[in-house]
Amino acid sequence: MKRGWHVVGTVRAGARARLHDLADSHPAQVTIECVDITLADQLVALRDRLACRRFDMLFVNAGTVNRNPADTIAEVTTEEFTHVMVTNALAPMRAIETLECLVTEAGLLGIMSSGQGSVANNAQGGRELYRGSKAALNMFMRSYAARPASRARALLLLAPGWIRTELGGPDAPFTLEETIPDIVNTLLEKRGRPGLEYLDRKGRTVPW
Ligand SMILES: NC(=O)c1ccc[n+]([C@@H]2O[C@H](COP(=O)([O-])OP(=O)(O)OC[C@H]3O[C@@H](n4cnc5c(N)ncnc54)[C@H](OP(=O)(O)O)[C@@H]3O)[C@@H](O)[C@H]2O)c1
Question: Domain 35-200 falls in which CATH fold?
Fold first, then answer.
C-alpha cells in the first residue's frame, strides 16, 4: 500500500482474510474478488468481471499441503493427492492461462512455488506430496514459458523461504512482515526481465 499500488486480491467465497482489513483501511487501493482457483468456471467469471482492467502484475499465491505432510507418497490417499496436485499445480496454471489477457505485455506473470519444488535441491526428502506438486508446477510453467507466445513475457516462480503462516507452521523462522518487502522487491526487479526465472525472495536463482 505504501507504494501506491492498486490491487485486486482474491479470497474464497465466505472466507474473511487479512486482505479484508487492508481493503477496509485502503478502500481506494484494494478491491476484493472471490475465486476458488480450482474451479475453472470461477476463473473465467473473474476474467469477465475484470475485462475492462489491465494489470502490471498477476501473481498466483494460493497453495495447500496435505494433512500429514510427513506421509510418504504411497501413504497419502488418492483424494489428498488429487486435491494437492490440483490446487498447487493445475489450478495456478489455469489461473495464468485464463487471466494472462488482463496483464500488459510488459507485465509480470508469477506463481508462488517453493524451494521444496526444486528437484536438484531435494537431498533431504520429506513433504513428498507437497514437493512433488511444486515440482510439477515448475515443470508446467517451464512448458508455458517455452511456448512462442510466452517468450517475450516476464515469468516468475518464487521460492519465498520458510515463513510463519498457517501452511508454514509456528516453527518457521520468518514472519510475513519480514519477508514481504523482499518478495515485492524481487517481483519489481523481475518485471523488466523477459523469460522464466525460479528465484528466492532475495532474487537469487534456485536450481531446478
Ligand atoms: N509458508 C511457507 O513457509 C511457504 C514456503 C514456500 C512456499 N509457500 C507457498 O506460499 C503460498 C501461500 O502459502 P501460505 O504460507 O501463505 O499458506 P496459507 O496461510 O495456508 O495460505 C494459503 C492461501 O491459499 C488459499 N487457497 C488455498 N486453496 C485455494 C483455492 N482453491 N482457491 C483460492 N485460494 C486458495 C488459502 O485460502 P483460504 O484462506 O480460503 O484457505 C490461503 O489464503 C502457497 O502457494 C505455499 O505453497 C509457503
Answer: Rossmann fold (3.40.50)
